[in-house]
Amino acid sequence: MNKRIVVFLVAIYFACSALSFGIFHFAFASGVVKPVVGGGLAGLISPAVPGASGGVGVNAALPKTEACPLNGELYTVPEKQAWEKRRPLAVMIENHPDARPQSGLTSADVVYEGMAEGGITRFEAIFLCGAQAKDTIVAPVRSARQQFVEIASEYNYPLYAHVGGSNGTDTDPRVRALEHLSDYGWTGYNDLNQFSIGYPVFVRNYNRIPGKDLATEHTMEASTNRLWNYAASNRKLTNLDKTGADWLKGFVKWDFADDAAAGERAASQKVDYGFWQGQTDFDVTWQYDASTNLYKRSLAGQPHIDINNQQQIAAKNVVVLFTVEQGPLDIHKHIYDKIAGGAGKALIFQNGKEIVGTWSKKDRVSRTIFLDNKGKPVKFVRGQIWVSVLANDTPVTVN
User: Fold this and answer.
1) What value does the mean pLDDT of the chain take?
2) Prior bond to 200 cis, omega within 30?
3) Fewer beta carbons within 10 Å, N or C terminal of the chain?
4) What is the structure's pLDDT at 53?
5) What is the β-pairing status of strands 110-117 and 385-391?
6) Residues sharing a CB contact under 8 Å with residue 222, sequence separation 6 or more, in sequence order
7) 227 — phi, psi (to 5°)?
């Protein structure tokens, strides 16, 4: 080839490379484009997936007659028709102070809260009914932890969404969540691990909290519809599993009751507890509001807000489950709360009143059962149920 042509082509190559670098450098620096871990080249250069939208578009005038099987809350017929085609979705959501506020917790039917490692707590939000009317952004999604896998197991092969998990030779065998997911037959099936799925189901959104500079580990987003749709199209998991069985068949529902009449509710009640001595960033307060029959949640002394709707998190039922807490177990300071095969004391707060009861979970796949002080199944008030898992000696203050 003519030497002049070679020189010309080389010059063109370097010019194009410089131009591409400049464009992408500007895009990343300006926030127009952000890298998406686990998404390959498409994930690297694609803009973030738009926010929550879609859903069944429920007419607000429709009567709410259909009880959610997870928490008894009443919904419309179109919402029930939507959730009947799906299975519960369990999403790991982190609670590091730098990652707050989270997205999606107000739309969960049940939320579990417990230790992850080193005094830091994590949430497992269970979605089925409350996220049908509108697609719900869930964030920041974080890694799997063993006790949360064991809790999710009682929902009959739920979709389990997370970003990696505790694993490896430097992790205590009791809490190697990724190995255990494989042992349970979840890997590649109902286990929705971002490491194996990537973009656009999971998206790194560095701008998820406007005005806040987020480290990469606090940026992973997904949405309930994207997760449900991926499971249906790629794993053939709807309400039916690979054998054709409906997840609801054999599922043990809790008992539910309507709100207590206004005259039967306590005038006020406040519940305070922490998770780890000296870690006040994770201290929780629930303030009961008799007018709405809701417990409003504060975290580290501030109202705990869901960034999706700027609403304070509020539950109809607050459960404190006391158990044997083991750890830190390894160099990662992993904590293991024994729930599968465990039993112990439970405090249930509803209607402004406290029930001193018990809990038990026969094995990993069995339902957690809550009994009142008379040994009868607790009737949860229809609405969100929030379960905090605490070590046996943790103080809880009730005023």
Assistant:
1) 89
2) yes
3) N
4) 52
5) parallel
6) 91, 137, 138, 139, 141, 161, 194, 201, 202, 203
7) -70, -45
pTM, two decimals, is 0.88
pLDDT value of residue 318: 98
273 beta partners: 284, 396
Structure tokens belonging to residue 371: 């009994």
Nearest to 161 by CA among 125, 133, 128: 125
Name the 3-class secondary structure at 105.
helix
Whole-number Cα distances in Å, 236 to 85, 199, 202, 241, 244: 12, 19, 19, 7, 10
Question: How many CA atoms within 13 Å lie on the side-chain side of 105?
Answer: 32
Q: ∠ CA(399), CA(374), CA(389), 5° rounding?
A: 55
Tens of pLDDT, residues 266-314:
999 999 999 998 899 999 999 999 999 999 999 999 999 999 999 999 9
Nearest CA-CA partner of 101 in 280, 298, 240: 298
SS3 331: coil
Q: Residue 190 in contact with residue 144, Cβ under 8 Å?
A: no
Contact 102, 140 (CB under 8 A): yes
Residue ranges in the chain assigned as alpha helix (H): 3-30, 40-45, 77-83, 146-152, 177-183, 194-197, 224-234
Rounded to whole angstroms, what are the CA distances from 10 to 19, 135, 344? Answer: 14, 49, 73
Output the CA–CA distances (angstroms, integers) from residue 370 to 84, 215, 242, 353, 360, in the order listed. Answer: 26, 39, 31, 16, 7
- Between CA 383 and CA 71 the distance in angstroms is 6
Instruction: Locate 251 and state its tokens.
Output: 């599922």
C-alpha atoms less than 13 angstroms from C-alpha of 318 in its C-beta half-sphere: 27
Residue 352 near residue 269, CB atoms below 8 Å: yes
- List the structure tokens of 387: 């379960």
d(CA 363, CA 62): 41
- The amino acid present at 329, given as its one-letter code, is L
- What is the length of the chain? 399
Q: What is the C-alpha R_g of the chain?
A: 23
Tokens of residue 69, six digits: 């099987």
Both tokens assigned to 394: 């943790």
Closest CA to 378 of 255, 251, 252, 253: 255
